Amino acid sequence: MIKSINREKCNSCSLRINTGCPVSDSCHTDAIKLNGEGFPYIAYPDDCDTCFICYLDCPNEAVEVSAQIPVPFMTVY
Predict the structure, then answer these.
(1) Distance in angstroms (rounded) separating the CA atoms of residues 49 and 9
(2) How far apart are CA 26 and CA 77, in angstroms?
(3) At 11, which CATH number?
(4) Alpha carbon 15 to chain centroid, angstroms
(5) What is the tally of structural domains in the chain?
(6) Which of 16, 35, 36, 71 has the most neighbouring CB atoms within 10 Å?
């Protein structure tokens, strides 16, 4: 699941400023959207299928993704 997007790293991204954000363009589930200023944000975190494409497409390593899936705790008697 996508955990965070570091906006400070996005500030210096020439791709985001000139051609559009590759992170939001690469999200096939639309979990990542762009706000009015053109910055990516996590719009639908539960829709993320942890494909890591956003992580790989971000030239400034601003995206943090976790492959850990919460497992419910079960007590067996």
Answers:
(1) 23
(2) 46
(3) 3.30.70.20
(4) 16
(5) 1
(6) 16
